[in-house]
Amino acid sequence: MDWLIGFFTPWIIFAGIFVLHLLLPARRVTGYVRDEDSGELLSYRLNGPLVLVACVGIWAVLGFSGALPWDWLWQHRWPGLAGAFTLGVLASVAVVLSSPSRGGALLAELYLGRRENPQMFNRRADAKMVLYLVGAILLQLNLLSFAAHHFLSYPDDPSPGVVLYVALFSWFVCDYLVFERVHLYTYDLFAERLGFKLIWGCLAWYPYFYAVGLWSAADLPNPDAPAWLLVLAALVFFAGWVLARGANMQKFTFKQDPQRAFLGRMAPKVFSDGERQVLHSGFWGVSRHVNYLGEILMACGLALSLGWPLLIGPWLYPLYYVALLLPRERDDDRRCAEKYGAPWEQYREKVPWRIVPKVY
Ligand code: NDP
């Protein structure tokens, strides 16, 4: 019975987050991608930070009142993972099979999806943004609960690395939700469809695998890591954040107004064929995807922050980013070469580095 409750926990949490998303006030913004049928720019209701605060608040109330142990999600992490995994598979199959085929092989369509950007409840909720929202918030709850397990296990000598890891990862989650609008301009929104990769990825992989560092270290005692290691971890993380957030915001500013200087200082320099423009200044002049380097550095900072630099578990997270972002960069580069033509060729010549300047 206990196992069954654990299994359905992510289902219940996802449903709760979805209801909060629908009910809480939200700002309405116009996005970047267009409706598949009407060709109009899609509009979105965004309220990620508010839903996050509400969910963490509920978690805290349950913990303080004693209604649920602080580390309940840790205790039920295996059935929880199984439940999220199963829901991810079922939802992917249901979404794909209920959408018209694009004429591809069934397995490929199951994996990559058919529909691009479906919206629900009279456009009150966007399927992709809801998936990212529920994944991000369950990740945050898992992190808090896993850290709580560590504190309950070692009340007299908890690891500062666990505190740092959760603080940095909370920054990562809050950053995503605060800048939810910028996410509307990314690859996931304009190039991906709703299939197993995205649905299962958001429901199972994102909230459970991303916490792999604590999954492996929450049960361990304080490693007594030297302070310099923790400082280094935070520096690597924030250096990565500056690159990723800076590049994303510069591109977002440019897409909204191609004349506007980013942060009032970085005037955009572009290659253009008179119709389409490719930005090659600021972050986008360092490498063609310096934002990916930023994500990988943030992941390395997180792996280091736990204070167990030789433990393999936390390093699976940056390794996953390398495996995800290297092929994604190739794919995006191909897509941009097709879309932009000559300006992209000029950009490749001026900025030959794909991700890491002077290296790759
Ligand atoms: P980008 O933000 O780099 O978006 C690529 C698109 O931006 C291109 O297809 C093109 O689209 C446009 N573009 C690229 N270069 C230029 C340029 N020089 N000038 C003008 N437009 C350009 O990548 P993603 O969407 O993949 O990633 C967005 C963010 O999300 C990144 O920071 C990434 O690291 C992060 N991310 C995070 C993940 C996570 O799990 N935490 C997973 C994957 C990504 P267009 O056709 O619109 O011009």
Account of the 3D structure:
The chain has 360 residues and is mainly alpha-helical. 64% of the residues lie in helices and 7% in strands. It has 15 helices and six strands. The chain has a two-stranded antiparallel sheet. A hairpin with a 6-residue loop joins β1 and β2 (41-46). The longest helix has 30 residues, at 227-256. It is globular, with a radius of gyration of 21 Å. It binds NADPH dihydro-nicotinamide-adenine-dinucleotide phosphate.
Regions with pLDDT < 50 over 5+ consecutive residues? none
Radius of gyration of CA atoms, rounded to a whole number: 21 Å
Continuous helix count: 15
Bound molecules: NADPH dihydro-nicotinamide-adenine-dinucleotide phosphate
User: CA-to-CA gap between the ends?
Assistant: 52 Å
- Describe the sheet with the most strands: 2 strands, antiparallel
Oligomer description: single chain
Mean pLDDT: 94
SSE succession: HEEHHHHEEHHHHHHHEEHHH
Number of strands: 6
Major beta sheet, strand line-up: 1-2
Q: What portion of residues belong to β-strands?
A: 5-15%
Binned, the helix content reads 55-70%
* Rough outline: globular
Structural class: mainly alpha
